[in-house]
């Protein structure tokens, strides 16, 4: 739905054990991702990657009320992190939050059209196809994929693993359209 219709709004997903993520889309592309997972919060994300220490994180968190800013801005202002690196880490963090969903085995979701985040920071450059491909590659083993598609006999999927070039792909045409495939 999101890749085809390209709506703007909020996709809320939640696991059965109450891990929640809010993914905001603009024109079908993710622009902001929030998560309740502690290791996906920016400070913990940066500590886990060795970008800052736990002590530096505690110092910055202690200044947040006094400085009235967001964690990333204070990290840059206090020279713990250059602004260009912060932008890259925010992008990486958003990808991690999105890819984590591919490891879920159950939960709930709802999409709220036109809802946008209150946050000022928006990520850009995340491509839906790239996230889906990477998520399936890392979140699903081959046996899980096979069993999923084995149950879907009605889908038009070719089971053989033969190379197919884009020029060879011909889908059934919708009524009223002509096709160069001879269909």
Structure overview:
- There is one protein chain.
- The chain has one domain.
- β1 (about 10-15) and β2 (about 20-25) form a beta hairpin.
- The chain has helices at about 1-5, 40-50, 55-65, 70-75, 85-100, 130-140, 140-150, and strands spanning about 10-15, 20-25, 30-35, 110-115.
- It starts with a helix and ends in a 33-residue tail after the last helix.
- It is of the alpha+beta class.
- α5 packs across α6 (about 130-140).
- About 40% of the residues lie in helices and about 15% in strands.
- The chain is globular.
- The chain is built from seven helices and four strands, in the order αβββααααβαα.
Summarize model confidence as the mean pLDDT.
79
Strand content is: 5-15%
Shape descriptor: globular
Question: Which segments are poorly predicted (pLDDT under 50) over 5 or more consecutive residues?
Answer: 156-171, 177-183
Quickly count the domains. 1
Sheet with most strands: strand arrangement: 3-2-1-4
Total count of helical runs of at least 4 residues: 7
- Tell me the structural class: alpha+beta
Main beta sheet: 4 strands, antiparallel
């Amino acid at each position: 739905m999101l890749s085809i219709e390209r709506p703007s709004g909020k996709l809320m997903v939640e696991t059965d054990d109450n891990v929640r993520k809010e993914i905001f889309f603009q024109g079908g592309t993710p622009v902001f991702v929030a998560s309740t997972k502690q290791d996906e919060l920016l400070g913990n994300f940066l500590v886990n990657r060795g970008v800052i220490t736990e002590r530096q994180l505690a110092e910055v968190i202690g200044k947040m009320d006094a400085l009235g800013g967001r964690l990333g801005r204070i990290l840059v202002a206090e020279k713990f992190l250059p602004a260009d690196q912060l932008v890259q880490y925010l992008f990486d963090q958003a990808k991690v939050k999105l890819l984590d969903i591919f490891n879920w085995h159950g939960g709930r979701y709802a999409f709220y059209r036109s809802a946008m985040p209150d946050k000022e920071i928006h990520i850009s450059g995340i491509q839906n196809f790239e996230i889906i491909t990477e998520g399936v590659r890392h979140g699903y083993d081959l046996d899980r994929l096979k069993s999923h598609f084995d149950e879907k006999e009605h889908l038009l999927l070719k089971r053989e693993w033969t190379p197919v070039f884009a020029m060879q792909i011909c889908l059934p045409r919708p009524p009223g359209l002509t096709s160069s495939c001879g269909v």
